[in-house]
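haha ok so turns out i had the wrong file open the whole time. this is the CORRECT one, sorry everyone. sequence first:
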Amino acid sequence: MTAATPAETGEEPRAAGPGAVLPGAQIPEGRGMGRVRLVQIYRIGSAVLGALLLATFVQAGMALYGNEQARDVLIERVDPATLEQFRLSTAVTGQDTAIRAYAEEGGREHVEQYRAAVRQEAASAARMRRLLAGVPGHEEVDRLLARATADSRAWRAGFADRVAAGPGGQGIDRGESRLASRLLVQARGDMTPLQTGITALHDRAAAKLNSRARTAQWSTFAALAMVVAAALLLALLFRRTVLTPVSTLTGRVRAVSEGDFGHRLDVPGPAEINELAVIIDAMRARIIEEWRTSEDKSRRLDEQTEELRRSNGELEQFAYVASHDLQEPLRKVASFCQMLERRYGDQLDERGRQYIAFAVDGAKRMQALINDLLSFSRVGRLSRPEDSVDLDEVVRQALDNLSTLREETGAEVDVAELPDVPGDRTQLVQLFQNLVGNAIKFRREGVPPRVTIDVRRTGDEWEFGCADNGIGIDPRYADRIFLIFQRLHSREEYTGTGIGLALCKKIVEYHGGRIWLAADEHAEPDTVTPGTTFRWTLPAQPSTGTEDGAGEGTGDPDD
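then structure:
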């Protein structure tokens, strides 16, 4: 099993050749940035920028956290403690009012109001301690709160609790009233320092909150600025390491592609760009080398072509001169041999007359060969091309030249209506005469020759056909039969010089066409007789393209 060829698979054939790029070990090391690879640059840059961004965001996060903590201290702890201080002061005043009302008027509801105020004072004091626990500077407030609650307890122990334990409604004597007033003034006097202390604590918490807020604000601005700076640095790094070197390399490669092969491609940049420039520069050098080599080969080929053309011209001239000059001696040899036979034939024996016949036959065959060589050498040298040649007239002239042979063999020649083509009339007559003459000559024994000439339009050319019912040609000789002096049969079987088909090929190619053996066609398609079909093309007249186009692909001009 053989692998499919690119033509069978439809794939584009891959061209291969020696490498134009230096091996990696021989690529020269770059200078400056050219020593550093892009991956290293971006790895280091990413690490540095990542560390800066991380530090900035951590700092901003910590500032926001500190601001949140300061806000919680002020709003969730100091402010409620301040409110509880006012409740504490109100509870002390409420205790005094309730206990005096009970002492003057009696009534257990005043005692209950007194005891509720006592509980409110204790609850407010406990809440203040709980809220301010852990707040920086709370120790002074705790000390003032302890002194205020101690003086309040002293007032209750020295006056209020004893009145509440009594029957009530009996009034307060003067001495006891002065003691109670002194103790109450002392307890209320403690509220002012307590309020001052908690106010100072509130101011410090508010100042701290403002400071943390400014710090968080500036940290956020710094983080945003760092992000913008990082984006700008990345853009600058990308421009410096990729865009600028690639743009420069593209411009220089474009200059080379436009024909400036001397433009070097040394582009400063990272190692990858430097390596790419070196590789492309090596390809440029290879292209220059191949171009110079190709130019040198083309020049030598032109010189050899010119030499071959000159040599071929000399050979053709020699063949023409030799063929022309040899005819006269050959005619003289044949004529004198025939005269010798006529005058002295009765004096010669049978062998002598046979020798003379051999000499005359050889001279005539040599003369035929020379005539064919002369015709062969004239193609392309002594042509008289015409713009339009009527092929119907050409075929009639060729058939007239073969009239004797046609009458002797009883040949029938069917000719379709043929077009006009540009060309040499004499050579076209020779072409049809040779093909029809061969068709009649290579006939089958006992079968009258039948020759058919047809034509069809294929694009910008006419395709002619000459088919016969003769002995046929083995397809393996399809190329050999067009070589000069090539014969498929002995001279005893069929006469000829072996130049006829070579002359046809030369005439057709001189007119810009091609000729070939159509091995699968013959004159009688409904039979199994071998036969031979030759097909050849001739260019159509440009001026008749519109008219002739109507019959394109129909197979016959009559269509």
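The radius of gyration is 63 Å.
again sry for the mixup
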